[in-house]
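ok so heres the complex, two chains, lmk if somethin looks off
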Amino acid sequence: MDSIWYKILGVVVSFILAFIVGMTYMGLSRKIIARVQNRKGPPFYQNFIDAMKLYSKSTAIHHGLMQHLGPAFIMVSSIMTLMIVPVLNDGKWFPNLNFDGDLIFLLYIMVFGPLGMALGAGQTGNPNSAIGVTRGLSQMVGFEIPWVMALVALMMQFKTTSIVDLMEVQAQSGTWLMFSSPFAFIAAVLAMLGMFRYSPFDIVGAPTELASGPVSENGGKYLFTLMSSGAVFAFAKLTLYVDLFMGGADNLIVLLLKTFAIYLIPMLYGVVSPRYRTEQAIRYFWGWPTFFGLLAILHAVFF
Amino acid sequence: MINDKSSQKIVDIIQNWARKQSIWVLAYGTGCGAIEIPPTMTSRYDAERLGVRGAATPRQADVLLITGYLTTKTLKRVIRVYEQMQDPKYVIGFGSCTINGGMYYDSYNTIKVLDKYLPVDVYINGCMPRPESVLSGFGKLQELISEGKANGAQEYKDNLEWYRANQKRIIPNWVMPDYNW
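and the predicted structre for the whole thing:
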């Protein structure tokens, strides 16, 4: 069972699962946002139709090599994040490629995709792309600090840098890390608001203001790649939160319930919030989230 | 098997279904008709339930919605925007001004018949057309797409010289990049 083919099959299956779940969540969020705005809204499978249409469009845009590689970079980053995040407890069904120190690797690889996209967007020469990239990197500087603080607090508290070990800790003690290290959870959730880029932190895409920002020169199949990588990345991030703070999941239904519960936080916060300016967003992340991150580290050191 | 005609027909049906259900609109809103777009998109008439959504840039858009009159000065920009869009693409002429000039029929500064310069798939009549008629225009476009009849972009490519001659008559200083779409 431990052969390389089994692992490759597991990667493919978890990719397909992540694609379907991520796209469905994005469709559900469109539906829920529409209901909040008292609209009927598109059907929940609208994103699949959009993806099909985008894939069937022709793409005859050429700005240079990096422009073609940008979406590929972000896709690679999403898939690598997905591969080291355990989908279910005890490596059931989905054999993921975990190793000691994967939390640190994760911190790097989650930044890799946006940086590749930034290079690609830079080569298109579109001013909206350039402004979007600047804003995206500024925002990343904002939310990475509480996010890293939360993870470092976990690493210090339990003397491990492995996601599987942290899940093991929760399984043995019987309490979720959400309760045993609450400050890290709060900091991580507040950082997640920026990571998902829903309003009020949608300053990167910024519809009607920046003409969709870094992706403004990408249509057709490139946009399809970006969309599906966004779906996969969303699923990977949600699963990571469930693994780290909510004790993982024993089967797929529990996983879907827990991930959707986490997903509702940025989405519902976004529905009722107007967009921040860039400096307001950074000030937000360097305020309370960083304070809770510091508390988490103090909690990890002294308790 | 892949390139054989009957399987191509099935692929066309599926693709046309997807294109019909997901229309991303680039509203070229310099004419007065742009004021009818927000009510069409927001809570009361909610075009998103039909899959109609605003697109931010011409690269991502399927439909170029030309809302109202086009001055001779903006025509050049509209042509550039249209040629940057990716196939398959459609044009909706919105309001009477795009059909025959409307209330600007004797203006020296606007073009009268949009169809001479860009291939229009669907016209929406009225001054202003209300959101209901805008939605019915989108419905007509969906019908044409599913029947495979909305091929204005192909006409544009086939009759490019005729369209270019018309365009150059309006735009004297023609400094435009060549597109190899």
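quick notes: The longest strand of chain B covers residues 23-28. thats all i got rn
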